[in-house]
Amino acid sequence: MVEEEPLLQMVKMSTVTESLEKVDLMYISIESTIALVSVLGNVLVVLVVYMNQALRDPTFCFIVSLALADIAVGVLVIPLAVVLSLGLSTLFYTCLFISCLLITITQSSILSLLAIAIDRFLRVKIPTRYNIIVTQRRAWVAVGLCWLISFLTGLVPMAGWHLSPPGNVSMTPIKCQFTKVMRMDYMVYFNFFVWVVVPLIIMIGLYAEIFRVICRQLNRRAEATCDSNKYYRKELKLAKSLVLVLFLFALCWLPLHIMNCIVFYCPTCNVPKIAVYVGIFMSHVNSALNPLVYAFRIQRFHDTLIHIIQRFVLCKTTSAIQGQHSPGPTTEKTQVQ
Fold it and tell me: Are 289 and 252 in contact (CB under 8 A)?
């Protein structure tokens, strides 16, 4: 019996190892799928805006910025997240820089979401002065500020807000994992409370005011025009889109940050590895959903996308495409309200 105990322990350890390997393999497969969908969807966003001059207004500066951030999530963040999950051997500051890069790019996506919310708020709140205040030049300046702030906040750990290297020797290779280089107080207090919770609260306030303005305008339009039903449908579609934006943002980002809070405030609590993986790819899947939420609900975007598919995928000629779908004039539907 005494001799069988070590053998039994080895069998149990082997079973646990195989189980963890299956979880890792599943995580990598899901992340790869999200990366592919995110890159393809957001490349289409950029391509559609490039090919349709009617979409080249200040609003779409923010949408293109969001698409570029989400492309970076698919091309850089997800592969680097997979590298961290495998725990490859790297130098301490190399691992720290990789971890900071993850935060930087995902932060730019969050700030782009906030910029779009502000842009939509201004479009509804001051429709007559919107084109004067929100010029394309100012929009690109705002995009630049979003990316600059993302880099500054994401690289804060490189300035010293990180865990100490093993034995205080930074040139010693370590098993590169996010939790071995990044301090949880930075992730909870700075990254979550300041750069996730605050933007979320601001967006809730902006969307609440948007709904208030829309309801007020709907009541006035209903009294002033006989075409109120059509107007109600249009504004209702917009309202549903805004709710969906806010819901998806919270749904995709909060689980991972809540788990970070659990680890920080309750060090003895055990967060299952599969739960951490679910939280990570939920935050990444937001990048794959953004093209659907922000872009493909616009009619002109649908038309241009169909044109691209017919021309470059189905190899139809321009005359054949024009015969099937004659382009209509630019209307309010081509704008993001």
Answer: yes
Report CA-CA distances (Å) from 84 to 143, 175, 180: 29, 9, 10
What pTM value is reported for the model? 0.81
Contact predicate 42/71, CB 8 Å: yes
Show the tokens assigned to 189. 């207090």
Distance of alpha carbon 95 from alpha carbon 5, whole angstroms: 39
Mean pLDDT by 10 residues, the chain (337 residues): 50 51 76 92 89 80 89 92 84 92 88 87 84 91 96 95 80 87 95 94 89 78 54 64 79 93 92 86 86 71 81 71 52 45
Angle at Cα 14 formed by Cα 10 and Cα 18, nearest 5°? Answer: 175
SS3 165: coil
Q: Judge residue 8's burial from the number of C-beta atoms within 10 Å of its C-beta, 0-12 exposed, 13-18 middle, 19 or more buried.
A: exposed
| Residue 47 CB burial class (10 angstroms; 0-12, 13-18, ≥19) | middle
List the one residue out of 183, 143, 148 whose CA is nearest residue 263. Answer: 183
Contact 199, 111 (CB under 8 A): yes
Looking up tokens 């290297």, which residue turns up? 165
What CA–CA distance (Å, rounded) separates 159 from 151? Answer: 12
